[in-house]
UniProtKB/TrEMBL annotation:
<keyword id="KW-0326">Glycosidase</keyword>
<dbReference type="InterPro" id="IPR054593">
    <property type="entry name" value="Beta-mannosidase-like_N2"/>
</dbReference>
<dbReference type="Pfam" id="PF22666">
    <property type="entry name" value="Glyco_hydro_2_N2"/>
</dbReference>
<protein>
    <submittedName>
        <fullName>Glycoside hydrolase family 2 sugar binding protein</fullName>
    </submittedName>
</protein>
<feature type="domain" description="Beta-mannosidase-like galactose-binding">
    <location>
        <begin position="5"/>
        <end position="141"/>
    </location>
</feature>
<dbReference type="InterPro" id="IPR050887">
    <property type="entry name" value="Beta-mannosidase_GH2"/>
</dbReference>
<dbReference type="GO" id="GO:0004567">
    <property type="term" value="F:beta-mannosidase activity"/>
</dbReference>
<dbReference type="InterPro" id="IPR008979">
    <property type="entry name" value="Galactose-bd-like_sf"/>
</dbReference>
<dbReference type="GO" id="GO:0006516">
    <property type="term" value="P:glycoprotein catabolic process"/>
</dbReference>
<keyword id="KW-0378">Hydrolase</keyword>
Amino acid sequence: MKILFTVTNEDATRELFWKDYEFCRTFAVTEDVLNEKKVILVCEGLDTLADIYINGQKAGSTDNMHRTWKLDVKGFLHSGENQIRIVFRSVFKYIEAYEYEDNKEIHYVPCGGMKGNQLIRKAHCMFGWDWGPQTIDAGIFGIFIWKHTVIRELKDVKITQVHGDN
């Protein structure tokens, strides 16, 4: 890959993102982990269209780089060595195949940008700007956390006020 910010290398770099990419690694799981009620994989940074496989089985998919994803993966794990594989699908292919609902096609394209950026939950600046390159990259940009104990979470909070005489 050429240096993105040199001359017209932006064009050559952009062509790389018509492809899908994979990240793989192995990790160990103990019996203690498997004895827990749940084993949650918390993904705090996946950009953007990703399929997550644990030991060859699809554990989940993502379509939004702006959120944290939580997957219960206990049923995919076994004692000993395991494998996680994340396949990042091409955003270009997604946009090209997108089918608009009747009379809902969007024609707006920002100055210097690429058509279709509004069809996906991805940082819009990656599609170019009047001052910035078009770098529609993909990959892991945050941390992964394994939670394997019963953890209580607040799903929703409602705040109200009660006003007294004073």
